[in-house]
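Data availability (excerpt). The following record was deposited with the supplementary files.
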Amino acid sequence: MSGLAPSRAPAWRLTGLPGLVSAALRAMWPIVLLLPAWYYKHPLLFGLRHLETAAWIALAVFALWRWKHWMPAARILFATALLLAGGQELAWRLQREAVLAAGPAMQAVGRHFIVGYTDFAEVAELAEKGLIGGIYVGRRNIRDRSFAEVRAEIAALQERRRWAGLPPLLVAADQEGGRVSHLSPLLDRLPPLAMLAEEPDPGRAARAYGQRQGSALAALGVNLNFSPVVDLKPAGRPDGDLFSDIPARAIGTDPEGVAEIAAGYLDGLSAAGVRGTLKHFPGLRRIDRDTHLHPARLAVSPGEMAGDWLPFRTLAGHAGSAMMLGHVTLEALDPRHAASHSPAVVAGLLRGDWAYDGILLTDDLNMGAVYNLGIGRVAAEALAAGVDLVLVTYDPRQVYRALYGAAAAFEDGRIAAARLAESARRLADFLAAVR
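Predicted structure:
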């Protein structure tokens, strides 16, 4: 009998059920780490952003401590996850530094961005350096705060713009009435505009509604409201629609009735010094997917869309309004780009065929329909097509990626200087009416 102690097999060579369980856990951990590494700093994880890095490091340390003798394949997966997360963090930091250096290209494109914010100092720096043209005020900004506090914060940002010799910020909100009333309860929650269709004079009732809502918004410091929704009301809510809910938000099914109410509402807002926004061109009535999460396509001709587009076209030149472009691909015009960044839709249809010279803005570029294409790429393509304002609201820190991509496109000629100059003129005219 040998005097040597029996050798101990590595943990990953354990046999039987315990060995299988241990092996499965060791194989699973690198995959568990790969998922958050792949989605590192993704808008879907914005709610966990303050924990994201620490949680990922804690998971990695725990996995290394618990399973020191990983199988070779697991080690490769773990190293891949580490490089992926670390690379994305480094790229984001470098892009942020490049943006905050506030070079001429960054400022040239920056005036075309409206951003949400959670940190006053961060958005104030962007505002003072001319790296944004507006802010979005939403639920996060009013939570546990008084009307006076929010108003003072907006006024402080506008004062910093004046000190810097820059135009005032556009201050945007999403106060449609009904279920989308993101500044309530700070502001009164009004019923949806659809309720006005029952009034004896819907247009007059809509003007009174708009003036009431606009006065409250203006008192807070808001000068641009993302309303009215002029998508025609669909028959029902599509399966998988978690967020859009156009049936509850649309004014009605009759294009002319929708246009009448929307026109009165815009006039009421304008009387209070607030601009409105027609949304979401080319319309979400026929869409069976939620663009907050997925790309959506319309396989119908422009002729078939005439009724859906009547409110947009009727009100396209209406004083006091902008138009929001949805992340919907019109296959007949441009099968490769959603309307929000399509040259065929923006420069061809709207600026060309419709001769629309008003403000065009994108829906939020954090939305799943376009974000995975690259937020910098989509921002650049939108501005190159002739869009005036790019929204980065849900996850404000994506603005560094978006600005970096747009500035790079401007520097290498993918965004024409003449196109940005035309847009700057439109924005100056737009701002003149809301000061």
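Summary of structural features: Residues 72-100 form the longest helix (29 residues).
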